[in-house]
Automatic annotation (TrEMBL):
This is Queuine tRNA-ribosyltransferase. GO terms for cellular component: cytosol. It catalyses: 7-aminomethyl-7-carbaguanine + guanosine(34) in tRNA = 7-aminomethyl-7-carbaguanosine(34) in tRNA + guanine. The gene is tgt. Zn(2+) binds at C338, C340, C343, H369. Catalyzes the base-exchange of a guanine (G) residue with the queuine precursor 7-aminomethyl-7-deazaguanine (PreQ1) at position 34 (anticodon wobble position) in tRNAs with GU(N) anticodons (tRNA-Asp, -Asn, -His and -Tyr). Catalysis occurs through a double-displacement mechanism. The nucleophile active site attacks the C1' of nucleotide 34 to detach the guanine base from the RNA, forming a covalent enzyme-RNA intermediate. The proton acceptor active site deprotonates the incoming PreQ1, allowing a nucleophilic attack on the C1' of the ribose to form the product. Residues 281-287, 305-309 are annotated as: RNA binding. Belongs to the queuine tRNA-ribosyltransferase family.
Amino acid sequence: MKQRKPISFKIEKKMAGLGRAGILITPHGEIKTPAFVTVGTKATVKALTPEMVSALGAQVVLANTYHLYLEPGDEIVRDAGGFGKFMNWHGPTMTDSGGFQVFSLGVAFGSKVGKLSKVPQGENEEAFVVEEQSGRLAKIDEGGVTFKSYKDGSEHRFTPERSMEIQHNLGADMIFAFDECTSPAAPYEYQKEAMERTHRWAQRSLDAHHANDEVSSKQGLLGVVQGGRHRELREESARVLGAMDFDGYGIGGSFDKDDMTTAVGWVNAILPEEKPRHLLGIGEPEDLFGAVENGCDLFDCVAPTRTGRNGTLHTRDGKINMRNAQFVRDFTVVDKECDCYTCKNYTRAYLAHLFRSDEMLAGTLGSIHNLRFLVSLSEKMREAILSGTFEILKEEFLERYRKTVER
């Protein structure tokens, strides 16, 4: 008798292109897509309780394998019943593979290259040297990654098999195959090498996952498409991984910001339509529209809570910085169209006071607002897909949002 899949995905309505609205069923509940995934890196959404996260409409929380492995340790999380139970979150859960730390601690260590970057042109791109890894916290070989803890400098080793073991212990509903994320500045030859290594690691991840019947019946495994900004590599990765027995797919790697939505479209035109797709590490409102219309169902990012703690808040008219003097006597709400707890109860003047005074409550109220803004935007996209008005929503939202530069 064939084992029942731990997650399933139902498409409710398709757009003219690749976009769709659906329902993703997990062991801990349904996720109505498209949906923004809240990041709780260390089994906590910074400055918020799980009850607050739930109240603002978040459906799913993603935790970081690398960080929970280092602290408190994946075996402690296992013995607590998994990270969802550990943090008192009762809904669907996800963990990444630790693969992004290969990038952030390796080729990106000490640089300004991030998830979305402007790609250097001409000779600067040629100057990307992948062999020189001295002084970095992570070193890559065919078997896996050797890295030093950012906490105490101790040496550790991640392989596809070890990543699966750790993620099994963390107990999320959806987990990711171990992959190598590359810099958008990396030359073509290295992008291809890293992609092919990711494919080999994907098969090893699948083998290790399916070798454990108990957990593979409870946790869905998602393969991660790589290939940088090169169409032929992205499409090759989508074909190779799409032929493997994954429960869904992540789209990984770092992107040139101008290329991101195009690259996502290349990939999703090939990946199996009946399986969910998650765009890893993307969370700006403009980028969410591009992701959704190009076939992504889920997306996660630390940006809304990180910027929210620092005083930069989303509004329908662009971003505002609550530390700016112009808000000290502004007794209006952050966004009069927002239905979050912060906007229902507090003024810009009060938030400006909290941020300028470095009060702890500032981070809580800012994070609530920014998370609700993106969750609400995802909800509106879903409604617009179902009603056939997505293009209208996109045009009206972006025209207004882009009118005001961050101030």
